[in-house]
Structures
1.
Amino acid sequence: MKSAYGDHVKVAMDGHVAVVTLDRGPHNFVSVDFMRDLADASQAIDENPEARAVVLQSEGKSFSAGADFSSSTDSVASGMGGINDLYVQAVRLYSVAKPIVAAVQGAAVGAGLGLALVADFRIASPEARFAANFVKLGFHAGFGISLALPRLIGEQRAALMLLTGRRVKPEDGLPWGLVDEIVPAAELRAAALKLAQEIAEAAPLAVIETRKTLRADLAQAIKARTDIEHTKQAALRATEDFQEGVRSVAERRPGNFKGR
């Protein structure tokens, strides 16, 4: 198994745990190539019998701040074709067989929240923030979030996040199941590794089959949901509200939306 996939995804083994580090700081904005490299690394981990669990961590200020809609050159932010390609990679990530523990520091926003939801568990530092801020952009949720989030925290709490776009602190997300443990930033990676090692101590075939039962047909459901999300995003991207949303978020002010 390689130690690097592309320029921003690194893999190291710690016993039976594969530690995957995203290194596109400071905010680890998603891109099609970035997520393809992550999916390639995840597939290689699945094929490695020595790897029994995964830690997903990132360098920089944010776990992942999602798509960079302020960029005119980013393929995800600049066009729906790039978003569709991104969702192909999202389905690949949801198809991973081995358990994933995410170490979340800073923002997990938009598609970055979607990436955190791919994991089975989320260990967070007090500085972490979770947000599905799509409506503040005049946009529809993507990356399968409209399915994965209510599945994890319940319909009502997911509706609160999706319809307000508010940022959720770890202490609020803990009783919801959005966060599994809160630890100081200096202990974040060690705590994620500890949980992954606990999983890796169990019988690996039993773990994989149990996880498969728990997740059932989740990857296929994510594929169907991202198809719907993509259609709705394409329609909303053509609105004046979307243009205003991108401006207002970049300028850190409330959007002046007109409903058109």
2.
Amino acid sequence: MNARLTPLVIYGAGGFAREVLQVALDMNSQTPRWDVRGFLVDPGYDVVEPVHGLPVMTTDTWTAPADGELVIGIGDTSARRAIADRMHARFGMRFATLVHPQAWVGRQVRIGEGSVICAGALITTDISIGRHVHVNLGCTIGHDAVLEDFVTLNPSVNVSGNVHLCEGVMAGTGVKLIPHIRVGAGTVLGAGAVAVADLPADVTAVGIPAKAIRQHDISWSIQSREGQV
């Protein structure tokens, strides 16, 4: 393997982890960069290996490559936060940032470490995307938007200009957010919801217009930091 390639391991072995693999492989088809070593899971995770010809390793026996990077292929926001904290503390891992070559990303866009931008995403200008953010297939993000750490956009989410999504927000498939609104940390927007006004932290909101229908029992930020996932 070309020595210039960076070893890459994908945490998780489910559906989104396989999509992350495809992003890395498609990046390599443009400019070879990643030496994908396989998938990483916790002991006891039920998976038949290999996955797409790559080994599935467990955290109790895995040795992190000194020059390697890790990317988390877990869609759930709070779980992703706990995994990132644990993997950094245990292995001191650097986190890879993956941007699919068929995503359109403007020049004035900042993307934090560990984030994954999938094919078909359109991200315009003066946008801040935090750490470990997932932007799925066909999402759009307009000017001056802010996506804080661990935000998840499922496929075909439309984020308008000047929208602020606080830490750990999860937007379900087909969610739309009009300009100049703020969604509080840990809030979940159900599939197809249309957010037309600010939403508080730690609620589930659904419908057109999106309305909070459930308050979460434990703050997402507290839950994540205590590892209760």
3.
Amino acid sequence: MSIDFTTATFKDFEDIDELDAFQRAKEFTRFTDYMAANGHMNYRLNTTTGCGPEMDVVTPYDIKPKRCVCFVSNDYLNFSQHPMVKQAAMTAIGKYGTGSGASPLIGGYFEYHKLLEEKIAAFYHRTANESVIFTTGYTANSATLLSMLKKSDIAIVDMGVHASVAEGLRGTNAKTFPHNNLSALEHILKTVQSTFRTKLVVVDGVYSQDGDVAPLDEMFALVKRYGAYLMVDDAHGIGVLGRTGRGVLEDTQLLDKVDIVSGTFSKALGHIGGYTIANPYVTNFVRFQSRQQIFSSTAPPTVMGIIKAIELIDEEPHWRDKLWQNINHFKKGLNDLGLDTGTTCSAIIPVKIGDPHVTGDAGRLLLKAGIFTNPILYPAVPRHDARIRMSIMATHTKEHLDRALEAFEYVDNQLNIAKRDIN
């Protein structure tokens, strides 16, 4: 079987019948070489500076690392560079060293882990025993779901949820419903009401590709009407949305009501790791039944930086205000150019293009102009919904954003990517 590289995606190489694993890897390498030759490999580019609104990027087009305006980081408040966050992490290394040495179940549970569990629980107005932390946000989802749901249970999942959710559903049943479609969700809830032991609806608070939010207030009422449970991953919501930065759950007054909340420390909190918030008997179960809690080493002492970042959300709310000034300015500028930003209402702003190869060309032109972005293609999004995905930071300046807008205007002149009439 010959794969047409002009229309292929990464997914086409996951499993090729007539090729063994090593042959398949070789064929995939031919494809990535083809992408690189066409300037479509804006992936795994090496950067030589830390997360920030500008980063030095090793591009295929420049001899030395190029200073680019960057929209690839989910460090929305840029707390990874906050002096107080860095100092908290360095102080912890000085006291505890650089590693934990064991899984949390058998000796790798230190006082800094306990402090972080208490801090993230309090952030959600919960008690300390209602939280459990993981080394990644991906693991928080996959580990929690793998331990909670078995062959007699079912997950009912929005089609737009993060890939970590799918990873966690391999041992159970699953049905998907069209994105944010409450009628379709209700139909499934009716259908499975008496068939499965546990019915868990799983959604994101903010969706990572479109930047839109779930209608959680209506969804919560619907789920409870049919005797099901609700899990919300608000990784992209905390620090960005909500009156005090507590995400979509705060906006919908559901902070203390949703059955399971998951999230990550790797976005607005500027570090790495994840967490699950639930009733104490659920978190206790996960601590002792999740394979990641039993067999994987836990986070290093630098998590003390996360504790400081959580405090800063309340102590320095001006970062969130500045972030929203940037979001509104940039989104308006893109829309004024006639570009399609979809239904976003968060710090994630897509420019929807549709054609994956035109999207790759757009990414190449932007990078050459010193604008580092992510072209997002199938299977991360539907085949004909490719886009340039950008994350806005509080530390972007108006000059950074305007440089990017000028670059998009140039790209539109070259590729005709505008989708709407300019008002």
